[in-house]
C-alpha cells in the first residue's frame, strides 16, 4: 500500500508521499525554498525543510511535518491559552530566525514587500497553517505568502486568527470583548512586542485585513478561481466586518 495522502486547502491541493509533500509551485517558490533552507541552517525547527523543485518548476517539494493542523477553529487545543502563548512565541522564533536571511535581486515574493523590512513575514501564519503536537503549536507550514515586512504586520494577522479577533456575528468562534482584549494583550506579551507596537496592534490588524481583501480581489480579477470562490462565499465581507469591529472596540 502506498503511503500517500491528498490535502485540499483554501487555495492549493497538495499530496504527501511518505515524508515529502508535493505542492504546486509559483514564481516565488525558488525564493521560498531558499528561505526554508536558511531557516533549517540556523536551527529553526518550526518550518518544513525544502527538498527543491520538480522538473519544469511546476511543483515544489518540502518536508512533511507530522501532527494535527489547526483547521478546526473551535478545537480546544486551537483555542487554548497555552496555544495562544505558544503560537506567539513560535512566530517570534520564526521572525528572529529570518533576520539573517540574505535577499537577492532575483527574489520573487507573492505578496509585496513592506517597509520597514525588519524580518521575513510568513504572511498567513494562522491556525490552519500551524502544526499542533501534544495540543500545542510546533511549526508553521505553507510559506507561499512569505515576504519582507515589519514584525507587527505579521503579528497582527496571526493575532487576528489565534485570539481570535472576530466580530460577534461570527457566533461560532468569537470571544466576548473583554476576553478578546485580554487574549490580545497576552499574545503581544508572549511575542515580546514593545509598548508602542502593542498600542498600534489593533490598527495594524484592521489595515492587514483590508490589504488581504484587496489582494483577494486582485487575484480574482486575474483569473484565480480559488480567490473568486472565496469572494463568492463572502470571505472578503467577513474580513471587512472584522476590521470595522476591531477599529470600533480596540
Task: Describe the protein.
The chain is of the alpha+beta class and 250 residues long. The protein has two domains: 4-63; 68-249, Aminoglycoside phosphotransferase (APH), C-terminal lobe (Aminoglycoside 3'-phosphotransferase, Chain: A, domain 2, Alpha-Beta Complex), CATH 3.90.1200. The protein has eight helices and ten strands. The strands form three sheets. Strands 1-2-3-5-4 form a five-stranded antiparallel beta sheet, covered by helices on one side. Strands 6-8-9 form a three-stranded antiparallel beta sheet. The longest helix has 27 residues, at 195-221. It is globular and about 50 Å long.
Features:
250 residues; alpha+beta; Aminoglycoside 3'-phosphotransferase, Chain: A, domain 2; 3-stranded antiparallel sheet; 16% strand
CATH superfamily annotation of the largest domain: Aminoglycoside phosphotransferase (APH), C-terminal lobe
**Order of strands in the sheet with most strands:** 1-2-3-5-4
> Structural class of the secondary elements?
alpha+beta
Q: Helical proportion?
A: 40-55%
CATH architecture of the largest domain: Alpha-Beta Complex
* H/E topology pattern: EEEHEEEHHEEEEHHHHH
As for the CATH topology of the largest domain, it is Aminoglycoside 3'-phosphotransferase, Chain: A, domain 2
Number of strands: 10
Number of helices: 8
Largest sheet: 5 strands, antiparallel
Could you tell me the mean pLDDT?
A: 94
Instruction: Give Rg in angstroms.
Output: 18 Å
Low-confidence stretches: none
Count of all domains:
2
| Global outline | globular
Amino acid at each position: 500500500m502506498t503511503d500517500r495522502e491528498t490535502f485540499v486547502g483554501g487555495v492549493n491541493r497538495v499530496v504527501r508521499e511518505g515524508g515529502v509533500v508535493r505542492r504546486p509551485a509559483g514564481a516565488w517558490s525558488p525564493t521560498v525554498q531558499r528561505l526554508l533552507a536558511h531557516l533549517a541552517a540556523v536551527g529553526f525547527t518550526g518550518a518544513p525543510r525544502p527538498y527543491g523543485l520538480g522538473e519544469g518548476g511546476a511543483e515544489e517539494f518540502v518536508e512533511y511535518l507530522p501532527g494535527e493542523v489547526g483547521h478546526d477553529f473551535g478545537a480546544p487545543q486551537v483555542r487554548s491559552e497555552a496555544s495562544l502563548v505558544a503560537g506567539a512565541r513560535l512566530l517570534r522564533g520564526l521572525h528572529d530566525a529570518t533576520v539573517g536571511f540574505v535577499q537577492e535581486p532575483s527574489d520573487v515574493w507573492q505578496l509585496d514587500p513592506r517597509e520597514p523590512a525588519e524580518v521575513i513575514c510568513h504572511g498567513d501564519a494562522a491556525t490552519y497553517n500551524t502544526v499542533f503536537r501534544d495540543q500545542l503549536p510546533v511549526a508553521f507550514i505553507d510559506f507561499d505568502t512569505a515576504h519582507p515586512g515589519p514584525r507587527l504586520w505579521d503579528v497582527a494577522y496571526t493575532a487576528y486568527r489565534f485570539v481570535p479577533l472576530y466580530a460577534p456575528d461570527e457566533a461560532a468562534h468569537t470571544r466576548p470583548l473583554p476576553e478578546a482584549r485580554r487574549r490580545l494583550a497576552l499574545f503581544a506579551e508572549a511575542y515580546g512586542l514593545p509598548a508602542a507596537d502593542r498600542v498600534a496592534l489593533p490598527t495594524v490588524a484592521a489595515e492587514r485585513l483590508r490589504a488581504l481583501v484587496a489582494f483577494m480581489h486582485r487575484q480574482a480579477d486575474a483569473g484565480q478561481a480559488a480567490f473568486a470562490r472565496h469572494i463568492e462565499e463572502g470571505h472578503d465581507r467577513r474580513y471587512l466586518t472584522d476590521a470595522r469591529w476591531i477599529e470600533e472596540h480596540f
